[in-house]
Amino acid sequence: MINKIGLIFILLTTLLNATNKEDILKLYKEKDYRKVCIKAGDLYQKYKTDEEFLNIYAHSCLEVDMINRTILPIVKLHKTAQSRENAAYFATILYQKKLLYHALVDDVDISYINLPKTKYILSIIFNKFVSGDYNYKNGAYWFNDDNNSELSYKLSTETHQKAKKIFLRTYKNGQITKVRTYW
């Protein structure tokens, strides 16, 4: 019994403490994007010239809405056409997030801005926001999903931990299913 507990402890410790690229790749294949994003940040200095690592790092952070963490990989992704395309994709979403934040927190008009469209939810909301495709009520912007009538989104600002943040809540049939926070 003690040997089984010890083995489980060692396996869990190994998974939680990624120390090299192979550990990151394993977590990525398991779709444990949150751990990849965090652990890749810890290993960034060691692999900052490895574009496979950088792409995995940025993609994982995007998957778990940790968009600010894509900054380091974005500036280093330049060696191949695919890496440059990925960097532009990540940068577009980061820029859209920053513009939405600026518009909501500082009441700045961004309706004139035209950026590339992506399938990432924040990008979809950004494009609906700049085109005025929303309902404004009770201090929040409400968006309908174009592909699923059961889904809607609420975009609002709130002060959380002494900082203004934007919240994007996903609703399915009127019930909250996901909350994303950005600043």
How would you summarize the topology of this molecule?
Blueprint: H1 2-16, H2 21-29, H3 33-47, H4 51-63, H5 71-76, H6 81-106, H7 121-131, E1 135-137, E2 140-144, E3 151-160, E4 163-172, E5 175-182
Antiparallel strand pairs: 1-2, 2-3, 3-4, 4-5
Helix pairs in contact: 2-3, 3-4, 4-6, 6-7
The overall pLDDT average reads 91
Could you estimate the helical fraction of the residues in percent? 40-55%
Termini separation (Å)?
47 Å
User: Main sheet?
Assistant: 5 strands, antiparallel
- Low-pLDDT stretches: 9-16
Class by alpha and beta content: alpha+beta
Radius of gyration over C-alpha positions, nearest whole angstrom: 19 Å
How many helices in DSSP terms?
7
Name the overall outline: globular
- How much of the polypeptide forms β-strand, as a percent range? 15-25%
- Count of DSSP strands: 5
Strand order of the largest sheet: 1-2-3-4-5
Give the ordered list of helices and strands: HHHHHHHEEEEE
